[in-house]
Amino acid sequence: WSPARDLAADTAIVYGVNENIAQRIASWKEQGYRVELMTGAAWGNYSDYVEGRFDGKNHMDDAQVRRDGTRVMHDASTPYFVPSPTYVNYLKSRIKIAIDSGATAIYLEEPEFWAFSGYSEGFKRAFADHYGRGWEPPDSSVNARYASDHLKYLMYHDALAALFKYAKQYAASKHLPMRCYVPTHDLISYSQIRMVSPMSSLMSIPDVDGY
Question: How confident is the model at residue 64 (pLDDT cuts 50, 70, 90)?
Answer without folding.
Answer: very high
